[in-house]
Amino acid sequence: MWLKLKILLGYVILLLLLVLTIHIFRKEQTRRNSLRQDEHELACIRHLAGETYAGLLGLATYGETVSVWDESDLGLYHTKKDSVCNMLQTLKRYVKSPEQQSRIDSLCLLLERKELLLDTVPPKKKERMSSICWVIPKKVNRVWKLLIYSLQL
Predict the structure, then answer these.
(1) Helix/strand/coil (H, E, C) string of 117-151?
(2) Around Cβ 49, how many Cβ atoms within 10 Å?
(3) Maximum C-alpha span of the chain
(4) CB atoms near residue 141 (< 10 Å)
(5) Could you read off the pLDDT of 87-123 as tens digits, one per residue?
(6) Can you say how many angstroms the Cα of residue 89 is from the centroid of all Cα atoms in its chain?
(7) What backbone phi and psi angles, to 5 degrees, belong to 70?
(8) What is d(CA 102, CA 100) in angstroms, rounded to the nearest whole number?
């Protein structure tokens, strides 16, 4: 009887070790899957942040050429700005801290304001160009009249 109890106790211990091993294995497997998901999410965030940064750089360099823009260029800038703001809003979903979320909102607001300011530049530039075009003929006429007057004398 004592031998059967020892054998039964040995099987119970082996069974408990087997259950414990399976439990540890499943726990590690779920942890590994969780880490893979986190890694994938971080890779997506990094990729999105890189694309957003490239978009911001593209907007900045495109905005530098505002002095030679026409209406279609402003429309293209608007499209690019909307694309960058959409990427920023997508990035905002992954950001946990309210401070960083407010910075993203501020950046989108600044891009909106910059677009409004850039919209005012081309007409002023054109006005200056048209005023120069009116001044030049006046000066040429004045010089021409002076030249004719001096030749008559």
Answers:
(1) HHHHHHHHHHHHHHHHHHHHHHHHHHHHHHHHHHH
(2) 14
(3) 146
(4) 10
(5) 999 989 988 888 888 888 999 999 999 888 888 875 5
(6) 8
(7) -120, -170
(8) 5
For the chain, the residue count is 153
Q: What is the pTM of this model?
A: 0.64
Angle at 117 between CA 111 and CA 122, to 5 degrees: 125
Q: Could you give the count of Cα atoms lying within 13 Å of 81 in the half-sphere of its Cβ?
A: 21
pLDDT tens-digit map of 124-143: 554 554 454 444 445 445 55
User: HEC string of 7-63?
Assistant: HHHHHHHHHHHHHHHHHHHHHHHHHHHHHHHHHHHHHHHHHHHHHHHHHHHHHHHHH
Rounded Cα gap, residues 93 and 85, in angstroms: 13
Residue type, 137: P
